[in-house]
Amino acid sequence: MEPRIDLFTTETGARLGKRFANLGQVVSRSPLPQATQELVSLRASQINGCGWCIDMHTKEAAAAGETAVRLHLVAAWREATVFTDAERAALALAEEGTRLADHHDGVSDATWARVREHYDDEQVAALVALVALINAANRLAVIVHQRGGSYEAGMFEAALG
Fold it and tell me: How far apart are CA 140 and CA 122, in angstroms?
């Protein structure tokens, strides 16, 4: 499957990409733990089948010190012992927020209650925004067949300067 277009080489795509990255920086600089951010982004990207984003978030998490065991087990987090209760709550929110059409209420009250047990208002705001942003990024990349494998950790930070 060949890429359909490189959005970043168009004027519109470049402008959107920069603003999208700036939104991502707001989340990145929030009090939501960085490890949680990468795990959530990775899980949503797995569900959406976004090779580009899986590649990016796996490499960013590894560069930040995340273990291979945890990265490999994100897809089966419910059956793994390596995640905290807070991370489990965030991963549940990521899954339900990604699969909105599967639940008539979107995110269940039970999942929301678990998230609120572990995260304060600032962290919840960042978590909700992160789930929305990663799903938007997944859709952009999947639609244009942006393939994974070539991402290098830190490459977007370097481009933003």
Answer: 27
C-alpha span between 2 and 64 (Å, rounded):
31
- Would you kindly state where each structural domain of the chain is located, as residue ranges? 15-160
- Nearest by Cα to 32 from 22, 41, 20: 41
Whole-model pTM? 0.92
pLDDT in tens, 126-156: 999 999 999 999 999 999 898 887 888 877 6
CATH of 15-160, one of 1.20.58.480, 1.20.1290.10, 1.20.5.420, 1.10.3720.10: 1.20.1290.10
Rounded mean pLDDT of the chain?
A: 92
CA distance 38 to 64: 10
pLDDT beneath 50: ranges in the chain: none
How many angstroms separate the CA atoms of 78 and 147, rounded? 28
Q: Are 51 and 64 in contact (CB under 8 A)?
A: no
